[in-house]
Write a structure and sequence with these properties.
With about 290 residues, this protein is an alpha+beta fold. The chain has twelve helices and eleven strands.
Length: about 290
């Protein structure tokens, strides 16, 4: 799936976006935008794709996504269902990287923020005390005056930057960038994989996309992503398997074959490697959560 470009519209009153999404309004496709995004998932769970990273998110998770880094959030059914008693909620903050001006970001006092905005190009999952303390400020931004919103944004970035309590998600080099031949090459590989993950894919097939020999492609992909292509393909397939297990009433065998596997035992083994659970265990935990919501 090719990521689509999304751009926010500024107004005379606001140079950046602060938005609360509820239920179905949280839905999105594989996209990217020139703004940095701070997303607070107040209530929801599901699977996120950030660059080449595939993982699970839950209530209270927070992520800082760099400009032009493709991403997508697949929310589990109860959180987006119109008939749900308590639909999911998230708060999204989007701003251009130089919102405070290039001179401001070159000040010695803003060194930590400058470094943070550089690091978030791979996507950062906020952890530790920052994850627990920042939601209150994020909530305040929804009703704050324009000036206070800007002050709160600076506060949030300073808190994240100085805490250093965050984990990188995507491989370095995945961010989309115009005019970068190497990044254009790796994009072709990712797009091919996302479009054909449920088919039989061989290394020579993928190498041919870049007009490389198989050994050269394997070295190239490892140098750009710090993982083998086979490992990346496994993560993509299992990520989509997780979604199918919670979104569709399919048995494990059906999910196995729809995600490109032709051997159930092999599928179960790889699923547990990625999620630390069996497919049935994963679905069972989801059903328990659903009943408790």
């Amino acid at each position: 799936m090719k990521p689509t470009l999304r751009q926010i519209t500024t107004t005379p009153e606001a140079s950046f976006l602060v938005r609360k999404d509820v239920g179905e309004s949280m839905l999105n496709n594989w996209h990217y935008h020139p703004e940095v995004e701070l997303l607070y998932i107040k209530k929801s769970s599901g699977t996120w794709l950030i660059g080449d990273h595939i993982g699970n998110f839950d209530n209270g998770d927070m992520v800082l996504i760099g400009a032009n880094l493709p991403h997508c959030f697949r929310h589990e059914y109860p959180h987006i269902n119109k008939k749900g008693i308590a639909p999911g909620e998230s708060i999204c903050i989007k701003f251009v990287p130089d919102i405070f001006g290039s001179t401001f970001l070159q000040l010695p006092e803003t060194k930590a923020i400058r470094q943070l905005l550089s690091k978030c190009n791979t996507g950062l999952k906020i952890t530790g005390k920052a994850k627990n303390s920042l939601p209150l400020t994020i909530e305040k931004m929804l009703t704050a005056t324009p000036g206070m919103k800007l002050a709160y944004l600076l506060f949030l970035l300073e808190e994240i930057a100085t805490s250093k309590e965050y984990l990188p998600l995507s491989s370095a080099g995945f961010m989309l960038s115009a005019g970068d031949t190497n990044k254009d090459k790796i994009k072709l590989v990712f797009e091919y994989t996302f479009n054909r993950y449920n088919e039989k894919i061989s290394l020579p097939q993928v190498a041919a996309i870049l007009n490389m020999t198989t050994p050269s492609f394997c070295r190239y992909f490892k140098s750009k992503t710090n993982k083998t292509y086979i490992q990346f393909l496994m993560e993509v397939r299992i990520g989509f398997a997780c979604r199918l297990l919670v979104e569709d009433e399919k048995n494990v065998s059906e999910v196995c074959y729809e995600c490109g596997y032709n051997n159930l035992s092999h599928f179960n083994k790889q699923f547990k490697t990625i999620t630390k659970k069996t497919p049935l265990g994963y679905r069972g935990d989801y059903l328990k959560m659903k009943m408790g919501s």
